[in-house]
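quick one
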Amino acid sequence: MKPINVGILGLGTVGGGTFNVLMGNAAEIARRAGRPITVSHVAAREYDPTQLVGLDNVEICDDALALAQNPDIDILVELIGGYSPAREIVLKAIENGKHIVTANKALIALHGNEIFAAAQQQGVTVAFEAAVAGGIPIIKAVREGLAANHIEWIAGIINGTGNFILSEMRDQGRDFADVLQEAQALGYAEADPTFDVEGIDAAHKLTILASLAFGIPLQFDRCYTEGIGQIEPQDVIYAEQFGYRIKHLGITRKTEEGIELRVHPTLIPEKRLLANVDGVMNAVLVKGDAVGPTLYYGAGAGSLPTASAVVADIIDIARTLTTDPGNRVPHLAFQPDELSDDPVITMDAVQTAYYLRMTVADKPGVLAAISNILSDADISIEAMQQKEPHGGATEVPLVMLTHTVREHSMNAAMAKIKALDTVSGDIIRMRVEQLS
Ligand code: HSE
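structure w/ L-homoserine:
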């Protein structure tokens, strides 16, 4: 059968890995796809030819837009990342009838609605398995494997860099900046690493997962996002004393009021599998009404793991090239005219439990005043510890876990506690999830 011609945009960490997997596993890939898959063109500004096997037989240029219009290319693989010019190039390629494979979560989370509409009109596929959780086939699992279910919620560690930093800080006592630098050297971090540490990358991915799970349009701007920069070593220790670990989670849940969409540091019971996912590994827990909880685990970033997902998408497209576009798996798992307008609720409306840490005066009546504010707000305390004063200090840390409450009530209670004369500085607050 006629080979499929692939054009690759970008030969960085993921582009280079994709090139090498397509070249190195070509025979096995052809056995699976039913025809050879050939890298015919590459557009890249910078690359290291010594790391790429078989580059001699490929046309190389530095004009990505030219590849988007090249009639010899069947599938354009966008691995340059970022919002622009990726959006313009992908739309141009779709206009020219090309199928797209991308690892670009920022592109899909922000411009996916527009891109999928354009692709549907042209009868082409935009595949994006590598955009979420690196090598884990989580998109295929949610979109196809769990298609029988009402998905109830998803909770995942979906940023490898952030998890790598948290794990190294906790286990090796390493410095934040030092671990981040290593993650960059290993090719895990985004071009702008603030996307990793501030939770934006995880929010991109969660936005995509929520749309696949609940059949809603992509709404990145509705995702609540908190990063890992505020986590202090003492919180890691106190959380462990309560039997919890701190993980940076993306959580999306369908409630009667709407859909929760939130990324933030979260205390989870240490016995949960998710609490024991360390390093660059990602894991996504999906709860379906029929199947129950299911867990997906694997490398969330890195050259070859991400390439694994990119190449799987290329094979998928090769297998379905001759099928009726109307009968292909819909981009967002549900038929485009069946997307729902269920609202994404604000963080104020979310109900969850909390970990609080505050610095209080070490004198009688302080605990009573704080407990009264919480009880007036109908917030029940699950556990509380006042730590020992050190070296004659007159202030001590007070840490507590609460039962579930609406975030709006917690915010109001925290403002009242902070206003007490006996409480100094900021109150540190993290959400607590049982994931049961
Ligand atoms: N920067 C991302 C991460 C790469 O660390 O997870 C994979 O999407």
